[in-house]
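Lab notes, practical 5.
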Amino acid sequence: MLFILILVAGLWAGLQNSLAGGGSFVTLPALMLTGMTPLAANITSTVALFPGQVTTGLAGRKLVTGVGRLPFWALFAISILGGALGGLLLLKTSPTVFARLVPWLVMFATALFAWGSFFRKQGETGVHLGPIATALAQFLIAIYGGYFGGGIGILMIAALTMAGLSTRNAGATKNVLAGVMNASAVVLFLTSPQLHWLQAITLGAGAIAGGLLGSWALHRVNEKLLRIAIVGIGAALTIALFVRPL
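Output from the prediction step:
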């Protein structure tokens, strides 16, 4: 029964990650219900969701792009470096402090995305984040992603849309970058005794299926509806995390 729950959690997380992010907030509680510690659940979830992130990124690769004068290869390199640093920090320290910051980070990112999507003045189309600010934001998000990872999709969509990308392109680009930053952490986690392989494989299978479904939806969902859905998911995540923090 618990493995069915893990499979369904993976499907849900893969779908949610491909559209807006925050899938780890589904997988972490599911894994902890099996008796894992928060640290073991965090590491197992990161490894399990990685194949789904790769699948989702490949499925939506035609929409992937750089941001203004910051080419995609630069975002790619920044994400690898930041993800590796975050993974090393996780193996050396407790994730408690970062877990306490998650509700505030998700709330800030959701508010930022909502403002950029619905409250900017008409005709206000200029880029709000320059290449240096965008690179710095992506580096910090990558460190956080390698360390804990909850809400990185919402954080990246907020940063990328503020830098000038459309919601659709930002969604596809963040899917690839999420996989890139987690790749560094996954390599470090593969030999960790905290990794539970059977649960990771079950969760990963569901995440791959959910990611493919989400990539299909990303190409077809109305852009305004997609923005509303992302804000709704972010608001729900924020409330849930403040009420019942991880």
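Observations recorded by the TA: The longest helix spans residues 96-119. Residues 2-241 form one domain.
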